[in-house]
Amino acid sequence: MLKLENLHVHYGGVHALKGISINVPEGSAVTLIGANGAGKSSTLRSICGLVEPSEGVIIYEGKDITHIDAHDRVKLGIAMVPEGRRVFTNLTVHENLLMGAYSRNDKKNLGKDFERIYYLFPKMKDRRSQKALTLSGGEQQMLAVSRALMSNPRLLLMDEPSLGLAPNLVTDLFNTIGRIHDEGLTVLIVEQNAVAALKLADYGYVMEVGKIVLEGSSDKLKKDKGVKKAYIGA
CA 2 → CA 21, 25, 42, 64, 227, distances in Å? Predict the structure, then answer.
């Protein structure tokens, strides 16, 4: 479904991505793990069109989208849950969800999607008339995921979804993401919480200073001594 080939990204004089290549097969769950500054977020921002690569190619469903505008990538079925939630705090939960569906042409199906969101995240139904500003951090993360799902994506990008959440909320969130993936949605997730990410994912890439230094099945990465030492612990 998605391939990055020899992707380079620069921010001024900073070489953030140094020729990375990754593959995300349709229906899979793939994770990028690594420390802060490894280039994980830059990878996602390149895929969704927020950063222009200086070299390399992004192929999505057989089409070169390297230079396609971000809003057009949403229409192609790519949605992102950004780091830090980035919900519209002055809008209600319901209005945030409508914003997620702004690019859709099948507005008649929105009712079904609202019900699906409320099934996956019951608290969103309870809070639907509240301003997003009044939600807890965990509820705002649920809203950020829900808003992305309202675009009816085929590929869901997630940037540090567990950031700042209590352990029990992380478990609940990843269980829900797992259910969404089991329904057939392709997921690419960036995470510092390697334990949660590798439990969810089929395949993973380890990034360090803008490069892929290791890749393999989740089971392989869980057993790798370097990964265990750096990202998992005893």
Answer: 10, 7, 16, 10, 25
157, 80 contact by CB (below 8 A): yes
Beta bridge partners of 92: 131
Token readout for 176 is 């829900």
For the segment 174-208, what is each residue's pLDDT rounded down to a tens digit? 999 999 999 999 999 998 888 889 999 999 999 99
Q: Domain 1-76+198-234 belongs to what topology?
A: Rossmann fold (3.40.50)
Mark 135-149 as b/e (b = at least 16 C-beta within 10 Å): beebbbbbbbbbbbb
Question: What is the residue extent of each domain of the chain?
Answer: 1-76+198-234
Nearest to 216 by CA among 201, 228, 230, 229: 201
| Global confidence as pTM | 0.91
In the chain, alpha helices (H): 40-48, 70-75, 93-100, 110-120, 122-126, 137-149, 167-182, 194-200, 218-223, 225-227
- Identify the burial level of 71 via C-beta atoms within 10 angstroms of its C-beta, where 0-12 means exposed, 13-18 middle and 19 or more buried: exposed
pLDDT digits (tens, 9 = 90+) for 200-227: 999 999 999 999 999 999 999 999 888 8
* Two structure tokens written together for 166: 């209590």
- CA separation, residue 47 to residues 73, 108, 134, 184 (Å): 9, 29, 31, 20
What is the Cα–Cα distance from 139 to 192, expressed in whole angstroms? 20
